[in-house]
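The record is passed on directly below:
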Amino acid sequence: MITIGFDKQCITPKLPIPLRGYAGVRIAQEIHDNLYTRCLAMEQKGVRCLFVQCDLIGVDDSVLNAVHEKILDLDIKKEHLTIVATHTHAGPGGTVDTSKEPFANLQSIFGEPNPEYLNFLANQIALSARNAFADLKPCKLTIARGVIEHVGTERHDPSLAGDNSLLIFLFTRIDEKTLLLYNYACHPTVTGPGNVMITADFPYAVERDLNYDVVMFVNSNAGDISTRFTRKDSSFEQVEIYKEYIITSIQEALKSPVYQGDFDDFSMKRYPITLPIKKVRPVKAEKDALEKYEAELAEAVSLQKDALTLRLLSTYVEGAKIAVGLSETLQGQENISAHFTVITLQGIQIAVVPGELFSTLGVPLKKEGIEIFGYGNGYYLYIADKKSYDQMVYEAMSSPFEKGVGEFLVNEIRKSIKDCQ
């Protein structure tokens, strides 16, 4: 029998603070909605596991290590600790270490190292974990599947397949307290670069209006999926529209669950992996490319092009800025040492990927019965497919990895899960 506990704690930073996720300066002076960390604690036969979700742009080993250090007395092995980020672009930086590769020189996107906030975050996660483990009880588990329409699409070409799949885990304890975890691939960036308020974006509205004690949004293979082509604007009114679509999809899926019963199957195992870094172009070449994209954007602005065109051109500028930073940082570097985690949850295999996996890589795994939790236990930017490198889309431009690393990673995930079975 597995016993579970759960808790959530506020991780909203002190204001004013720079918001991170887009190039450029955005200073938050106001909180639209608070950011949270949510913990799901599990114990079976003396083995403890902790799954943590945070309303943040990303989390890397600096967060993982800081949290583990603060919960040593809880007797949780590091391989049994998983921390994922939602990838909101309206929260603080300082949760990916921009003092080292591959993020050095990317402070404009991810912020300067922020030891004060990192310590606060680790303390809040530790508090949430302690509360969760202090109140463990048996539960029933409901698993459901569905689709979410009219929200995320492939963000370069909406006619492409993308991934609208929805996976739900509903934990109902014997005291009737509930935690709902929903896994869906989409950038939570509805409010866009013009927003200067702290917000978790659409996940906050979904949790607010669902009748569960804790609601966790766990992002999936969203590297190439966003609301770019479905949103009418970047307003909080648009967030509310998406919220309705998402909640309706969750409620419909729960009417026809694929499993209802005891929760008695869970494991978490970490696998190290070495990922080759691409041979970066000279810094001058990347700066020339950046100037070209900036000139194209400026011309489009002067011609008063439509908002979608301007946003697309802005993403190329952002990608080029990251490429400049990578060129300055990765010269002479060959590999990044990372890890992925395999979770088994009531017979369902889940790969926790440390970055923004493309749906073109994740969906084939899902068809094989392997689900994807993205932005987890590390953050190494985009993990794109080979085709995106050939097409020179901005995610491939701003990825630290050489062409083919995405395909290599998913094959290693396949091998590791076969070993688990």
